[in-house]
Model the fold of this input.
Amino acid sequence: MSSKLNALTSDSYTEISQYRDQHFKGNRYEQEKLLKHSNTLYVGNLSFYTTEEQVHELFAKCGDVKRIIIGLDKIKKTACGFCFVEYYTRGDAENAMRFVNGTRLDDRIIRTDWDAGFKEGRQYGRGKSGGQVRDEYRQDYDPARGGYGKLAQQHRSTEARNSF
Amino acid sequence: MSRRRHSDENDGGQAHKRRRTSEPIEIEDRLESLICRVGEKSTSSLESNLEGLAGVLEADLPNYKNKILRILCSVARLLPEKLTVYTTLVGLLNARNYNFGGEFVEAMIRQLKETLKNNLYNEAVYLVRFLSDLVNCHVIAAPSMVAMFENFVSVTQEEDVPQVRSDWFVYVVLSCLPWVGKELYEKKDVEMDRLLSQIEGYLKRRVKTHVPMLQVWTAEKPHPQEEYLDCLWAQVQKLKKDRWQERHILRPYIAFDSVLCEALQHNLPPFTPPGHMPDAQYPMPRVIFRMFDYTDAPEGPVMPGSHSVERYVIEENLQCIIKTHWKERKTCAAQLLSYPGKNKIPLNYHIVELAQATEMLYMRLDTMNTTCIDRFINWFSHHLSNFQFRWSWDDWSDCLTQDLEMPKPKFVKEVLEKSMRLSYHQRIVDIVPATFSALIPAEPLFSYKYEDESSASLPGYPVSITVGNAIKNRASNEEILAILKEVPNPNQEDDDDEGESFNPLKIDVFLQTLLHLAAKSFSHSFSALGKFHEILKTLTDSDDGKLHILKVVYEVWRNHPQMIAVLVDKMIRTQIVDCAAVANWLFSQDMAHEFTRLFIWEILHSTIRKMNKHVQKIQKELEEAKDKLEKQQHKRVTGNDFEDEEGQLEEQIERLQEKVESAQSEQKNLFLVIFQRFIMLLTEHLVRCETGSVDITTPWYKNCIERLQQVFLMHHGTIQQYMGTLENLLFTAELDHHILAVYQQFCALQL
Done:
């Protein structure tokens, strides 16, 4: 009697994504196993000004939050637009994936993804300039994320110097 | 229609890999997929899809009969919003294969028995409804369905059973009538009249003490909130008056009438409702929430009246859609918006018109239940945060002339506070008109008592400087404790040598200074609590100490309730304070002026939940240890090693047993503290009003009595374990009847 219909158990928002942490110590299989059981979420596309308090208020709607670790620029040690949210239970984290992912925090659409678990050092951006990699190469102007991407900023200052 | 046509559609997830060989598992998957997807958007008509699918399944019966039976039983239980699609399918199969029809009915009866045994009452309703619609499809003979209904209704004659039991059996019968009433009346009108008359008698004599606790509004206007059985009865009565003409339900079997009426019908086997078991958990009664009527949808199709059976059917179907698809929000939204028959009802208007709904809820805040106001606050602030906090605040300027404790200004204040938590203070100042400034929350800043030289005269000031420096210079715990010994104790004439007794000033100086240094963020504060955990434990050794630490936390962070909540949470989890201390603190005189604020109740309910989870965790550990021991004992291996292990396990079980008892005792005590405090506060108010000949119904009173109801409702499962103690110690006959009524309403929910 207790048969579930496979066609009805779709829960696509909680599936793991294609992203794999290149710095992960272990093989692909181990990483995927951790992702499938993790209570920790990576949260991206935050404004540099978004606080731990704001993150807590939003994510606490899905359950008790164990801890939040704000991502930092490796050099400046200031917030650089991402964080980790760890719940006490997987079920609460799943609800965040279903209902918070793709909605707004601080007026920005944020993205959540499973994380294999926080380890010291993972709170730092891995871009050359100290922030996140995505902020190294992006071309657009985003006032909440330091303006232009780092590469674009260099080009702009070069241009400015040349035209002067 | 070939199997290969139904490729997996993406609702946002990953596509299935296509397997190249046909294995039995895949065929089962494909059958499932075919059956589950019939009735969805398609280039062909529903009728032709059903016809085609019936043909495919008929051909598969020789090899896959059991699988098909299993799948059909499952969709009957899990896809109730597509009831009539599947009953038609079963009808077509029965017409082609009489034996299969019979086996399906038998399988459904078995499934019904299982669901009832497992307390799955909502699913059981869907199964019975499915069976009743099979009468329309000529699969089940009408007289045998009537006989089943008669057996259900006879439960109302049982003695010494909870009312919620007979409620359910009556509910099931009534809820089938929109689908099958017409057919049953055509075949067996005398029996059906007798049935309805029995039901009417039951409804007249049943007790409805529970209703006030469940109503959203305390007023009957503009929409009365009816008890769910009363509402359904009225709807069925009206349907009967309309000669069972029901126009909303999609009935695909009508198109197949010529085929179906040739089919042979089966009789349902006599079905005796399973007897009442003490651990049965029948569904609790409900009150029907009404917010809209036909005047609210001025354009387009007319909204069905509250006693029209269409209203019932639509609400059932919408609820089913949400229950089925809640995990997939895009699919769920699509399903709701593509609801069949939506053109005949103002569906879009009421699903999409959030602004109007919000406005209506705001206008009725004065009579809205406090728990519902909480939800409205949380929903609305969250909604605003996704739409740049744009709102026509001036539309609500009527709240500005009211006392701040009245529901409307209170609501706006709480919304702005929650909105600030999701953004920041200046943002809130910017988004509301200047006229709303009295409702803007305070800036969430730390209030440090020992801020500067102006506080130099305070007794704790000198030590606050010393201890602050010590912390900054990473002094050891011993050094800090030594410094704290210098703090004079306002409670004592002479300091005793150890300085060990409760010294509120010591706690004040240390904690204020520590939290001030760590005020930058949650993480900083958590880190501080962690680093100085030992000292804090020492300072809060007594109940007085625990209470005082909470007082200090409130004092320094009184403009940042969010911070207070997370700090209290941390302190419970690290056992610096216990749950009862938090409850006592929230109800203390010092916090009386904050008593009606939302953050107080969020802290209280979070505390209760932590206590409950703690008990459950240890109970689980105990169960696991018991299971392990049982497994060991079954192995029957002899030898010293085994006996040692068994001995260890038994010891562990004994320890865990003690732990469970201790945790349960703490849990019971927590509820006793909370209820006792409620009783004290409410009694005080009632007595004061009586002696002063004042009306008891002040905004504070309404808030408090509804908060008491909320504790019962939110934690009913746990509280039910302690009913005996509560009744003997607290909710006795001597209590004021206003307070006792709440307890009685709660008891009525499972009686």
